[in-house]
Design a protein that fits this description.
mainly alpha; globular; about 60% helix
């Protein structure tokens, strides 16, 4: 393990990287208009609203509480509402992420690699974009890297860091369901670092065991009070209930063969191999490397049970891999610097390559939002919802996606999978729905019988057309009033 760095040097590096990360994420926040883009985002905001009102046992038990709790606190800032409170949590977490990345990279590879790793994470468009969204991923990645770094530091050097690592694992477990399983990996990770075990290592493991046991008891009591179920992880049961071996295997293959190389990109993926394989001037700390990679593997293994190869489930492992990519950049640059004559300028190519690639990615991400094309986030939902809020009486909305109802300030419900149009309309009337909203982005594919209703000319007589929006090609939204709705 590398010796502790000089304080002034450490502060300077961290201040520069954090300042760069803040400015870069601020650019994304300003340049790309934001709306709630997932149903989970609405659940986080609704849970934050409950917490802000002082109600801590009335939210959906499948929603881990730490992120919405912070969102409720941030919503108290001037000019921030609950949506922006949650968004600011992600922004702050994504900015601070460079700190544990730098510190962990320095422990494994040294200062030069740590500076490159911090630069890569600061300028990674994917991370910057997520840092502006209402989602748990940025906060989870920050807690993940912080927990692993503090665990490593505490196991090797003792002191407060081990308690800080345990606290970070607790916070991670309250942010993402898989956090509890990563906490369980702390003991084998410490065993790898301190093998063969002795009394000193046993004393260092004791705080982890005590905090873990207390956390399990507290989580079980909380879930019992919230949902009437004595479990330390409420969401796991729902995940296992939907488990399917075929989809499990497909997710594993897809993440390894597609998600990892695509999300790292050609430059980081190329230098990842260099970081693992190129020889170094000083001996490698293989135990430390194995310890960190153990957590990356555990995150990947646990994410397979979600049965989705979405990159967001692998955010922390991808960041971990980028540490070795940064090492590959530094090692390759050092070898190019040893070349004769003017070829020494080639040492800058690896670093410039990743900066240029990320700059192109950022330009595409930001530029595509201003070319008149369908934006990545369903901004048309917000336009429709705000119009309904300003022009229509309050009522239940029948729609496939809940964002329109959120921005309208009205409750919503939706069709069941595979229903006919007649069955959907009967369901809407039976539920007491006053309005029907059909959108082109998702409803056309997920509830095909509703697709013809994008055109009011196809509407049956008991649907009164109220308004249509088409701010972008492929982004139509049509709003109807339903005649004959019954009280639920």
């Amino acid at each position: 393990m590398n010796p502790p760095p000089p304080t002034h040097e450490l502060r300077r590096d961290l201040a520069q990287l954090a300042g760069l990360a803040f400015a870069y994420r601020l650019l994304f926040l300003i340049a790309v208009p934001r709306v709630l883009d997932t149903a989970d985002a609405i659940h986080y905001v609704e849970t934050a609203a409950s917490f802000a009102s002082g109600i801590f046992l009335g939210h959906d038990p499948k929603i881990p509480p730490f992120y919405p709790l912070l969102g409720a606190l941030f919503s108290k800032l001037p000019l921030a509402d609950l949506e922006w409170g949650c968004r600011l949590v992600s922004f702050a977490a994504a900015t601070l992420l460079v700190i544990p990345v730098y510190l962990l990279a320095r422990e494994i590879h040294g200062r030069s690699t740590a500076r490159v790793a911090g630069l890569v994470v600061a300028l990674w468009p994917w991370l910057a974009d997520y840092g502006c969204s209402v989602s748990t991923e940025s906060l989870a990645a920050l807690l993940w890297l912080t927990a692993v770094y503090l665990l490593v530091r505490g196991a090797r050097r003792g002191g407060w860091a081990l308690y800080g690592g345990a606290a970070a694992f607790c916070a991670l477990s309250l942010t993402r369901p898989e956090g509890l399983f990563l906490f369980m990996c702390a003991a084998p990770a410490v065993a790898i670092l301190l093998w063969p075990p002795d009394r000193a290592s046993a004393r260092r493991l004791a705080p982890l065991a005590i905090v873990f046991a207390l956390f399990i008891m507290a989580s079980t009591a909380f879930n019992q009070a919230l949902a009437g179920r004595a479990t330390a992880n409420y969401r796991v049961g729902f995940i296992l209930a939907e488990f399917d071996w075929v989809r499990f295997a497909h997710t594993g293959v897809e993440t390894l063969s597609n998600v990892v190389p695509v999300m790292l990109g050609p430059v980081l993926f190329f230098f990842l191999g260099a970081g693992f394989l190129l020889p170094r001037q000083r001996p490698r700390d293989f135990r430390l490397e194995c310890c960190v990679l153990l957590f990356a593997f555990a995150q990947w293994a646990v994410s397979l049970f979600v049965l989705s190869p979405a990159p967001r489930y692998l955010m922390a492992p991808l960041i971990v891999f980028s540490l070795w990519s940064a090492s590959g950049i530094v090692l390759t640059s050092a070898r190019l610097a040893q070349a004769d004559h003017g070829a020494r300028l080639l040492r800058l190519i690896p670093l410039l390559a990743i900066i240029a690639f990320q700059a192109v990615q950022a330009a595409i991400t930001i530029g595509s939002e201003h070319l008149g094309r369908l934006p990545r986030e369903p901004r048309e939902y917000k336009l429709a919802g705000q119009w309904m809020s300003e022009n229509l009486a309050h009522g239940l909305i029948f729609t496939r996606k809940p964002q329109v109802g959120f921005y309208a300030g009205m409750p919503s419900t939706g069709p069941a999978e595979g229903e006919s149009l007649e069955a959907m309309l009967n369901r809407a009337r039976a539920a007491g729905a006053r309005y029907l909203v059909v959108d082109e982005r998702y409803t056309a594919a997920m509830a095909p019988p509703l697709r013809p209703l994008l055109d009011p000319a196809n509407a049956p007589a008991d649907l009164t057309h109220l308004q249509s929006f088409e701010p972008w090609p492929g982004g139509r939204v049509t709003i109807y009033e339903i005649a004959g709705a019954q009280a639920p």
